[in-house]
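We were asked to recover a plausible sequence for a given structure. The inputs and outputs are reproduced exactly as logged, with field labels preserved.

PROBLEM: sequence recovery
POSITIONS: 347
GIVEN STRUCTURE:
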């Protein structure tokens, strides 16, 4: 049976205390499902949200989190695509209108009416969370819920970004922030898609992780004398694609310099107040592209989960308790997390 109250991680104002608090269990509307969240990944976006880093306000008080994996325990009377007991995932994109120009073309994340989990609506750092049924991710019963959780943002996002890069099998893709949550998955999706992943990140732990997950070459930005030259040398002329997954703006401009002529730089990481710039003459003569990529739509979601369900990507997780979120943010801030932390939200 569904309890009346539950435990959640809540903050009342940006950078305010992260409190482990008892709050009511929400009731799903007609087009919504209630998910008993078993595990939630912690994405760097959750940290940006708590800091108030971006020019978009969060709801307050806020329950963060948008990589929630759990079990459907209630459904509104219009819901036809989930049954009680099914596995379902809370994604960043909690809902969208499905009728605007962008939704109709598959650009659901670009919908002006998008609802964002753990940002404009309460997310997965609680035991029971609401999702619009049409956007909730269907998760096969064969999946481990702790492992699949990070696929719901990190996995979908990097898979979509790799498609956006238009890199083809056999080509190099350089992954900036390769040892982090998004990066550790990007290396593996890239490999599974027949690409040749090169990782850039800092420190021996991340170097070892990237190599273990299939990275062909690793550049340590804390040790390299010249990151741009190192990539140009290894790729003999530049990387066909670059995924910028770092939460820092530092490496953005370098990526435009080591991308191969006719190649594509994909911008994914969202450091506050950042700019990316490219010298116009060089940009034109080398005919490079810079593209933004923002999570993924429902089809990208199904495809990204399918790669995981078929065992093509492993999720390097460390499991912690829900109430330990503040300590996880501190480690994330310092760049100390290799892979992803997943919080245990319910038994
Ligand atoms: O849809 C989107 N566009 C989307 C989806 C999800 C997340 C965007 N994001 C954004 C987040 O908001 C965040 O800004 O992507 C960024 C990365 O999220 P994450 O993977 O969850 O963060 P992380 O686990 O902290 O990993 C970041 C990695 O970047 C490395 C760090 O060492 C860490 O491993 N890094 C840094 I900071 N500076 C670097 C540098 N100069 C660097 N790696 C290479 N060079
Ligand atoms: Zn995320």
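RECOVERED SEQUENCE:
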């Amino acid at each position: 049976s569904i309890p009346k109250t539950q435990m959640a991680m809540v903050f009342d104002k940006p950078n305010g205390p992260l409190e482990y608090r008892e709050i009511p269990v929400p009731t799903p509307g007609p087009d919504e499902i209630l998910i008993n969240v078993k595990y939630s990944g912690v994405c760097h976006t959750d940290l940006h949200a708590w800091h108030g880093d971006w020019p978009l306000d969060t709801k307050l008080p806020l329950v963060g989190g948008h990589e929630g994996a759990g079990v459907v325990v209630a459904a509104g009377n219009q819901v036809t695509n989930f049954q009680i007991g099914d596995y379902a995932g809370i994604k960043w994109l909690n809902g969208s209108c499905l009728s605007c120009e962008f939704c109709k073309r598959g650009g659901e994340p670009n919908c002006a009416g998008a609802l964002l989990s753990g940002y404009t609506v309460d997310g997965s750092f609680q035991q029971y969370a609401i999702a619009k049924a049409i956007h909730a991710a269907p998760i096969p019963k064969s999946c481990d819920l702790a492992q699949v959780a990070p696929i719901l943002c990190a996995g979908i996002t990097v898979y979509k970004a790799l498609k956006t890069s238009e890199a083809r099998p056999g080509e190099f893709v350089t992954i900036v922030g390769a040892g982090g949550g998004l990066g550790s998955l990007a290396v593996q999706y890239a490999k599974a898609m027949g690409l040749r992943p090169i990782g850039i990140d800092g420190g021996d732990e991340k170097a070892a992780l990237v190599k273990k997950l299939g990275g062909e070459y690793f550049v340590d930005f804390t040790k390299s004398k010249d990151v741009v030259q190192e990539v140009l040398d290894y790729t003999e002329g530049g990387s066909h694609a670059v995924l910028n997954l770092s939460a820092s703006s530092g490496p953005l401009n370098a990526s435009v310099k080591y991308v191969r002529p006719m190649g594509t730089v994909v911008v994914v990481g969202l450091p506050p107040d950042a700019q990316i710039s490219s010298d116009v003459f060089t940009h034109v003569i080398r005919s490079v592209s810079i593209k933004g990529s923002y999570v993924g739509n429902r089809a990208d979601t199904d495809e990204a989960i399918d790669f995981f369900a078929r065992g093509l990507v492993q999720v390097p997780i460390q499991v912690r308790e829900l109430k330990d979120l503040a300590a996880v943010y501190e480690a994330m801030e310092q760049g100390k997390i290799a892979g992803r932390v997943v919080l245990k939200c319910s038994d």
